[in-house]
Design a protein that fits this description.
4-stranded antiparallel β-sheet; Jelly Rolls; 33% helix; alpha+beta
């Protein structure tokens, strides 16, 4: 864990993320105290499709590729590239389903990590903050679903 002496840049980073838009600086500090940070080199795999997931990751610096195995060719297809300020793995702290994609570092990347157990602890000990986090995750997942629906519509022929 990052502890009580949180760098100002970390607090500023989280305050500016859409997921945290309803959370004030003091509440961000509560959440951030339960996080860790890791660094990846270009080419490193953060996690693989179908692995059990129980962490959400916030990109502080660098880029991550979202890879999905093609049913036809069996090879990985890059679905998206995520960059600073974006997150990945939000579903894993809500459900217990396997990861839906492989995540690989495109460049040297610094990440902050919130585990499911830390998230659950925040929900139980700081329910007001937990509810705000849940709402933020819901907004993010809803936005992602809408974007996916729009992109999918380009590939589906009309019914009639």
């Amino acid at each position: 864990m990052l502890g009580n002496n949180l760098p100002r840049e970390m607090i500023d980073f989280f305050i500016n993320l859409p997921l945290f838009e309803q959370i004030n600086a003091e509440e961000v500090k509560v959440v951030a105290r339960h996080m860790e940070s890791i660094d990846l080199n270009a080419g490193d795999i953060l996690f693989r499709e179908s692995e059990k997931g129980n962490y959400v990751f916030f990109i502080k610096e660098g880029q991550l590729d979202v890879l999905k195995k093609s049913e036809t060719s069996g090879s990985n297809v890059t679905l998206a590239t995520l960059c600073e300020g974006q997150s990945i793995g939000e579903m894993s702290i809500i459900d217990d389903l396997p990861r839906s994609a492989t995540i690989q570092a495109r460049s040297r990347t610094k990440l902050y990590i919130l585990s499911k157990s830390a998230f659950d602890m925040i929900l139980s000990k700081h329910p007001k903050i937990g509810i705000k986090l849940l709402k933020g995750i819901s907004r993010l997942l809803t936005r992602n679903l809408r974007e996916t629906s729009i992109r999918l519509a380009d590939y589906i022929p009309p019914l009639s």
